[in-house]
Amino acid sequence: MSNEYRLSIKRIDDYKNKKFVIFHRPECPTCGLFSFFIVHLGCINKFLLEGYIPIVDLQSFNNIYNRGNKSVYNPWELFFCQPFNYSLKEVKKYAKNIKYLSCSAGCFRPDEINIYYSKYHINFWKNISNTYMPVKDEIMHEVNIIIKKLFGKSKNILGVKIRGTDYIKKRPRGHSVQPNVDQVISDVKNFDLKYNYDFIFFASEDELIKKKFIPEFKDKLKILNPDDDRYMINFRDKQYEYLNYVKNYLFNTLILSKCLDLISSRCTGATGIILLTKDSLGSIIFKEDIRLP
Prior knowledge:
It is built from 12 helices and 9 strands. The protein is an alpha/beta fold and 293 residues long. The N and C termini lie far apart (59 Å).
């Protein structure tokens, strides 16, 4: 009997002897990746405390990642690991004790202000994130290659993240007012003058904001090129083409989490950056016209 076959039998028995909850977030099919990330953190913590192994399901309901189609993937598992490395497909196939639940934002999600202010809350939610929903190894491998190509051996990098287009056009309810771009440019210049960074890594989905930043910082400014095939996930089916955008967004977030310091507008992506970094970031987070330490 091969080792692989023995492992398979052991894993099947393991599935049968555990309590699982397969959950999804029902109320926000078009929410962004780190909006889901933050809600999933809270839900995973809740279900673990109740004695279940939680499984994130982005496959079985209409959402922006599967475009409303029946998906052959669980999009979550393309980017993040499930708790204890159980997969949605195998849990459905082998487990005998499964609950299917929805889990909305509610009171379980981390409070973003606490993430900005409180070391206790940062460390608590970082531990949940790193232990139960870490980024996939293959994603991190690609990101580390990109970081080396962008910055060489330098660690003296300022990260800048500015949310633009979707806020300006849609003004979504419950989202923070975004800062004036000229004010952000001024702060970036002041930080650079004080700390003399080797590079400034900039991320924004807004092309107009990018066009303002590029002439201000010239060769010092580094931007991830989403059109470079090296950075694209291997999805050729139109049903999954949006996942290429998601992967680019995740890459930007992970690169920002590796920077020495961060200047960012307040958004779930900024919360994600803070939770994904291994060390503490020196940072300015804009909330309306107030800068939070």
